[in-house]
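Hi W., the adenosine-5'-triphosphate complex you wanted:
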Amino acid sequence: MIGRLRRTYRRLRLGTRLALGLGVLSLVVFGVVGTALTTYMRDYLSAQLDTQLAQGQIAQSKSIADYGTLTGKKYYSWFYAVYDVADGTPELRRPEDPADLPEDVDDFTALARAQSTAHTELLRTEHLRGNGEYRLRACEVEPGVVLVSAAPMDDIEDTVGQLIAIQAVTFGLALMTLVVAGRGMLRRGLKPLSDMAHTARGITSHDLTDSARLPVRHDKRSGGPEVEELRTAFNTMLEHIDDSLAVRAEAEQRLRRFVADASHELRTPLMSVRGYADLFQYAAANAPEERDKHLARLRAEAARMGFLLDDLLLLARLDAAEVETPLRLREADLVELVEQAADAFRVTHADHPLTLAPGPGSLKLVLDAQRIRQVLDNLLTNAAMHTPAGTQVSVAVSMVNGAAQARIADAGPGIPPADRARVFDRFYRVDKARSRDRGGSGLGLAVAQSLVRAHGGRIDLTSEPGATVFTVTIPLTGAAPWGHKPATQHV
Ligand code: ATP
Ligand code: MG
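Structure:
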């Protein structure tokens, strides 16, 4: 039974529960107040009756003492008995009016006996057979004579009963009003909470795969500071979920684009390989002198595919740098690396004059020499590939704010402002068709940036017609190869 009640209670709404709690509390308060009030009333009325009895007896005592008879003020349904107690046993005097005595006078006699020995007024409440509850008072009229008066207590009981009835009705009504109105008020007060639950349910039914942003927020302002605090926390949480979802959706989007781009880029050389293979087969049968030419092209396409895959693999490993360590760090001289790259450039791109600006004789720092050389090569190759022949290219090494800097600049046409932020994206080329003709896949700058970041550094780009400058900054200390964030955002 108690278990069932408890289960039912648990199922109740919070507002109802609080209202019920309030009701129980009020019931206790009403009970205490009612009991105190009733007790006080009963005591007060009893005291009044006692005073009335005493006053009556004073007048009657006088009449007994003076005339030996019981005259004077008499009340309806009161009883009066006069006893002679001279010899110790109370002797009841015959009353002039038989109505003065009840049927059963035992209690009167007992009280008269007690009074004869007590020598002071005695008060008792007795139940008189056939007459109900009575208040008895005994007093000595004169030596040897005792008067016992009895007043009915029905009136007191009636009054007290009425008081209890009035209290029960008013308290009951007050209790009901309190519970019903309190429940309504509490429900209204707690409404913002149910609204929030509603909002949360809205999120549950919202398809998160559809769009990254949650269309729901809790906007209603009511319910006091606590609810307001909860509302703010709730909305902040939604904001946070929103942001996380947006980041994830963007990453997914990039990944998809990357996979699509990579497949596309790989397909081009693969098609060429197929084409040259067919040509080679045809030439083997019909024009043997063409064979070597086709074979060489076939090799070149395969090599191009190889470079592309190398770049992709390197990027993937740099992305996962937290688990792997793709760099082989040694102390190396950046100036020497730049000189080597410049020499190689002069040999391979003779149509682009290169100047090496004067700088420090040597600049030693901990880095992966091969990878930094790859960065320099990528930037220098770009300066040659994406500028017309004869364009001046310059390289400079310096120390700026405790970091080593290599600047690769060219006097080419530059990169349009709209593309500047995106040239570091994977597979991004300003002029797709032309770059591809030059054999570019759009991974060079992405690889360079990932490598420099893996060294704890960064690449900056400034470009205007006639001056495109890539600045590679590598900190001398604190090169944090694995500390950098995997460049997932560049996928
Ligand atoms: P890859 O380097 O993979 O062979 P790519 O050179 O086209 O191909 P990135 O090195 O990433 O790719 O360069 C991205 C794009 O930025 C290039 O396609 C080119 O349009 C532009 N770009 C890069 N360097 C320069 C430069 N020095 N001058 C003008 N445009 C440049
Ligand atoms: Mg390039």
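Residues 478-491 have pLDDT under 50 and may be disordered.

W.
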